[in-house]
Amino acid sequence: MISPNMVRLTIDGKTVEVPEGSTVLEAAQKLGIEIPTLCHHKALMPYGACRLCLVELVFSWGSQIQASCVYPAQEGLEVKTDTERVRRTRGVMMELLLARCPGVESIRQMAKQMGVEDTRFPKKDEDCILCGLCVRVCAERMGVGAINFANRGTKKKIAPAYDRQSPLCMACGACEVVCPTHCVDLSTVSLRPARPIPSEFDEGLMGRPSIYMPFAQAVPHKPVIDKETCLRLKTGECGACEAVCDAGAIMYDQVDTIEEIEVGTIIVATGFDLFDATRIARYGYGRLKNVLNALEFERISHASGPTGGEILTAEGKVPKSVAIIHCVGSRDENYHEYCSRVCCMYSLKFAHLVLEKTGAEVYNFYIDMRTPGKGYEEFYKRLMHEGVHFIRGKCAEVTDVAESPEEEGKLVVVGEDTLLGVTRRVPVDMVILSGALQPRADVDEVARTFSLSCAQGDFFLEKHPKLAPVEAASDGIYLAGACQGPKDIPDSVAQGAAAAACALALMDKGSVTLEPITSWIDPDRCSGCQTCVASCPYAAIEFDEENKVSVVVEELCKGCGTCVATCPAGVARQKGFADAQIYSELEGLLAQ
Amino acid sequence: MADEQFEPRIVGFLCRWCSYTGADLAGTSRTQYPANVSAIRVMCSGRVDPTFVLKALSDGADGVLIAGCHPGDCHYQEGNYKAMRRYRLLLKMLDQFGIERQRVRLEWVSASEGDKFAKLVKEMTETLRALGPLKWSANWEENGGRAEALENTVKEHEEAMEVAP
Hints:
The complex is a heterodimer of chains A (592) and B (165).
Chain A (H helix, E strand, L loop, with lengths): L5 E6 L2 E6 L4 H8 L22 E6 L2 E6 L10 E3 L3 H17 L4 H10 L18 H9 L5 E4 L6 E4 L13 H5 L7 H4 L7 E2 L8 E2 L2 E2 L11 E2 L5 H5 L4 H5 L21 E3 L3 E3 L16 E3 H8 L19 E8 L14 H16 L2 E6 L9 H11 L2 E4 L2 E5 L11 E7 L4 E7 L1 E6 L1 E3 L3 H7 L4 E2 L3 E2 L16 E3 L9 H21 L9 E3 L9 H5 L5 E4 L4 E4 L9 H5 L5 E3 L4 H12 L2
Parallel strand pairs in A: 1-5, 12-25, 14-21, 15-16, 15-21, 16-17
Antiparallel strand pairs in A: 1-2, 3-4, 3-5, 6-7, 8-9, 10-11, 13-22, 18-19, 19-20, 23-24, 26-29, 27-28
Helix pairs in contact in A: 2-3, 9-10, 10-11
Chain B lengths: L9 E6 L3 H10 L8 E6 L7 H9 L4 E6 L10 H19 L6 E5 L5 H18 L4 H7 L3 H16 L4
Parallel strand pairs in B: 1-2, 1-3, 3-4
């Protein structure tokens, strides 16, 4: 016999067991049988509004058409999902929907898929199919109910109370998200303005939900829940993600845990930050529209970004001219003196992308063109042949104040063309600022944590630029990537591999080489005052209770010599740096 | 001999990780700076015993420079803080000896601050040139030599402790 609380039914000749209380639709989905739906949502109670999920139920006395999304699965039920009658009836339902909303793209697509060419019914021009998804999500999941059906019969519509913007509406946007015809406009529903959660990866150009995959290449490739904005965690409502997750992988009661892991080697690869171009006010970043920084442009030109890869201005138009300004914040006494190494190449990449995607006129304002690497100089030459305009001169300002008719409505890039010896004003539709690579904002904290030194612009200092480029000064800590200095991806990968190899070599050796310059305390003369014990930063001095003297643990001693200078009796001695040795050095240096 | 300028002799106690490397950088960068500093490398500025400073001064140095990593960046975590503490007390001692405070300096030079080191040496050399030689041993000479001077001091103390009849 089947276990209690499970029912067995037959769909299209296949048997399936589902828990009691499931619907026929759920049973069919378990078997992988496709049934069209419009008003069904896994996280909401079934409503049976669209009538597209109709199936034929076969009984001993005949057969019946029923909506599978609401019909309960029963023991011994026989269901057919693809008979002539089912197809015909679903077709009529589709025709009715098509008649109501002939202009809605998603309805037309669905009709086409079902083989419904046209509708016999008189056409209206609505966009809402009255599926009730928005009503249900607001009431069931959000616990608010700001939006509901109003009127009856042919006048039925979706509206907030009294057709006025609702003060109850939290502007969560769920109604807009679930609507299959994209006809819900949050601004008509809510008094509050919708505030999308800016996507960190998309540089704030796009919104993201509270449960989101940080980015397509995230490791681990799993979504995370943003504690600050998740309604379920903040108010106890919603929980839609848990309802739709087939794997049952969502657990709201997970808490952040701090894990302590003991390791012997650490590789610091904490990356870089892009220069904040608002610091250079005359470039207009943050003030003028269509002035973008490099990362924003990366997202705009990427297929997974806010514009689907189409390069568009803030007004949604394809730009006819684009200026790319090199060395923003780099090679500049006022900001960063160093060259950020990668910006010329990525600026050329942008130039090529813009040319390819839009055919716009591209102007690169540069100081020097730095293109080291395989094929890079050739790429630069190619761009010259493709008609990119290269203007050698640091850009002075970006302004929207027009001085001539051609400059009206455009951004004007003002800069000196040092090869021609003139100042040029170039009107463009979009400006891209190629910003410097700079150390992350928390570099001081990270440096303290790992005892790293910072140098040359605050990047982490390697042990030796030629002989130990991936090692940090402290044993067992390695550096990789842009945190050690601006570099591109191939170099970062190479450095990462080098750091990993060094770490492995250290781990593989099986033994550690100790410093020979450790301290030693003469047990015969130590008075046991323990002043040295407190002074050792590595807790490398132990007090021998039996003999009442302090003893240096050689394996822990790093050879700094602080204990030697601290010892009031002068009883501690550092090998190689003993008092007597230093006195000899002094006498030698100062001998007349 | 009248044209010969007084060249101060400065002993520098430089820590191996930061200030010695910084001084080395000044060298490899071919930075021009006065050759008045003789460097003694220690592992950490925390190794520097105030006795070293006094011995250097008594052996003929006109000034002593102790240079270490910037506070918070010590390769051995806190050695430079200890150097700071000892330095503060040493200064009080120097006051009692009548030795000018400008002669003994504690500075922070990081491994990338070659320029700072060069500037520091230049500045200190000029300051000491203006101050003139320390003449520590000269004190002893005035009193007939070191050993004799010590004997005289002891006698003075004995006399001072005798109870007046």
